[in-house]
């Protein structure tokens, strides 16, 4: 492909010989180690490394042109200076792979909590009615029936457009994080449906405050096709705010909530029946019966239901699909052994998510709750107080431990753990595997152990036990009993 075709919709802020436009480009990469002969290298200023430092490596490997943000004087090959390399990468990726949003029905899901479960529910519903479905998200990616590993919640633009160019599925579901939006990972994608699950205190190490976090999340709805539909959870106050704002803009928006103009209501939820609720869509009533537990999953199911209805799937077919949904790995994942405590592994990493997990265990009759709560390095520290307060309020014993260090020293993280003002019900065990072992040893039949923060994620450092995930740790402990 000619360089001129790749640079369509990319604005250059420097002068370079336009004869270079006829250069043939055979590949595109933002990783200098992947550059081959006649490839285009895009230099991105990352959070840990600056791609501009690797331009010479890319040229030595055979790059025929370079795109970057900084002033550069390259004598042998063209250098295209842009205002934002990530934005340029998204445009170039779309041009290189010649992707079209008309090829598939594309669904984007954003929000702090519930994105993954809602996306899995939707995929389950769609496949039950005979539609093939790609999924890009936190746990894994699936394209043309092939499961692929996931690095970020929202895949980077180059990989996303590469997969879309090869995708033969009817529907594509994309989990959209605030990082993915602000870093232009989904730039150039037009959505048929955009979903907003909720907003909670999170990522304020990256965003300035909750208003900015909300504003970034809201930009997903700017990417709806002219005939596209928005689905909003307005039981959440931020969702209500978004619903009214988008309504005022004249967009095609549907909401679930208690207001008269909401399109779906959840009623008759009983705490002692945590997977059962009645939902109303206008005058039509449906009985929702889930195998997975918790009011938060009722909200996730209702979001999936409303989206399915806007896809013209009959309500009863959606209800039947949801009844057979088995859940998501690492999302309120239950592990029950005879005559032992019930263990829940959950990705929960916000106050609301903590409340959902712990209150569900209490509603289901937990005699005592042991909460294993890990601190993660280089993340939003401001949300910890709220999470601790919820844990102290709803748990009988809180085991404070470590999550990923993320370039913070072990000694510093241990110091942070010991600096927490904790009540007598808290115990500090820095090694995560030993913290889980402590909870298992202390808990009895009828108790619940809630392990939060990682879900199915692998540990990024070694702990005492020879395991790599929370699930592995529990299974290992069961095996040696």
Question: Care to describe what's here?
Answer:
The protein is α/β, with parallel strands linked by helices and 481 residues long. It is built from 15 helices and 21 strands. Strands 8-7-6-9-5-10-11-12 form an eight-stranded mixed sheet, sandwiched between helices. Helix 9 packs antiparallel against helix 10 (315-323) and helix 14 crosses helix 15.
What topology emerges from the helices and strands here?
Elements: H1 3-6, E1 27-29, E2 39-42, H2 55-60, E3 65-68, E4 79-81, H3 85-97, E5 105-110, H4 115-128, E6 133-136, E7 140-143, E8 146-149, H5 157-166, E9 171-175, H6 178-182, E10 191-196, H7 210-218, E11 224-233, H8 237-248, E12 253-256, E13 265-267, E14 276-281, E15 284-289, H9 295-310, H10 315-323, E16 333-336, E17 342-346, H11 351-363, E18 369-375, H12 384-394, E19 397-402, H13 410-418, E20 426-428, H14 432-442, E21 448-452, H15 470-480
Helix pairs in contact: 3-5, 4-9, 4-10, 9-10, 11-12, 14-15
Q: Tell me about the biggest sheet?
A: 8 strands, mixed
Rounded mean pLDDT score: 92
Beta-strand proportion: 15-25%
Shape descriptor reads globular
Distance between the first and last residues' Cα = 61 Å
Radius of gyration, in angstroms, nearest whole number: 24 Å
- The main sheet orders its strands as 8-7-6-9-5-10-11-12
Sheet/helix structural class:
alpha/beta
Q: Helix count, per DSSP?
A: 15
* Beta strands, count: 21
Low-confidence stretches: none
In which range does the helix fraction lie?
25-40%
């Amino acid at each position: 492909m000619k360089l001129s075709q790749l640079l369509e919709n990319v604005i250059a802020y420097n002068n370079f010989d336009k004869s270079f436009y006829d250069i043939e480009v055979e590949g595109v990469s933002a990783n200098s180690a992947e550059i081959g002969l006649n490839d285009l290298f895009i230099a991105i200023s990352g959070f840990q490394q600056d791609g501009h430092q690797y331009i010479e490596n890319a040229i030595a490997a055979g790059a025929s042109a370079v795109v970057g943000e900084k002033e550069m004087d390259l004598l042998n090959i063209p250098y295209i200076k842009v205002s934002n390399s990530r934005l340029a990468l998204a445009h170039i990726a779309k041009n290189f792979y010649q992707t079209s949003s008309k090829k598939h029905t594309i669904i984007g899901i954003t929000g702090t909590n519930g994105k993954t479960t809602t996306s899995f529910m939707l995929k389950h519903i769609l496949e039950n009615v005979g539609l093939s479905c790609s999924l890009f998200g936190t746990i894994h990616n699936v394209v043309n029936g092939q499961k692929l590993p996931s690095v970020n919640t929202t895949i980077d633009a180059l990989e996303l457009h590469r997969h879309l160019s090869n995708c033969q599925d009817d529907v594509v579901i994309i989990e959209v994080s605030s990082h993915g939006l602000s870093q232009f990972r989904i730039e150039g994608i037009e959505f048929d449906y955009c979903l907003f699950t909720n907003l909670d205190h999170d990522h304020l190490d990256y965003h300035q405050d909750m208003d900015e976090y909300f504003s970034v999340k809201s930009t997903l709805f700017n990417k709806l096709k002219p005939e596209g539909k928005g689905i909003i959870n307005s039981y959440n106050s931020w969702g209500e705010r978004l619903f009214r704002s988008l309504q005022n803009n004249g967009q095609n928006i549907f909401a679930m909530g208690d207001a008269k103009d909401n399109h779906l209501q959840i009623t008759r939820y009983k705490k002692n029946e945590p997977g059962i609720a009645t939902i109303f869509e206008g005058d039509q009533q449906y009985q929702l019966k889930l195998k997975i537990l918790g009011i938060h999953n009722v909200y996730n199911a209702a979001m999936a239901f409303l989206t399915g209805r806007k896809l013209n799937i009959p309500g009863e077919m959606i209800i039947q699909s949801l009844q057979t949904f088995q859940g998501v790995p690492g999302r309120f994942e239950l592990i029950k052994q005879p005559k032992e405590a019930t263990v829940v592994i959950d990705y929960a990493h916000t106050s609301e998510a903590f409340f959902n997990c712990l209150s569900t265990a209490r509603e289901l009759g937990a005699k005592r709750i042991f909460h294993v709560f890990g601190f993660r390095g280089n993340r939003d520290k401001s949300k910890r107080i709220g999470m601790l307060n919820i844990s102290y309020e709803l748990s009988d014993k809180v085991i404070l431990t470590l999550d990923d260090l993320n370039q913070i020293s072990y000694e510093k993280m241990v110091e942070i753990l010991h600096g927490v003002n904790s009540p007598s019900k808290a115990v500090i065990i820095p090694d995560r595997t030993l913290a889980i072992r402590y909870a298992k040893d202390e808990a009895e039949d009828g108790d619940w152990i809630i392990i939060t923060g990682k879900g199915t994620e692998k540990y990024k450092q070694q702990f005492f036990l020879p395991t790599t995930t929370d699930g592995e740790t529990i299974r290992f402990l069961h095996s040696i009993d």
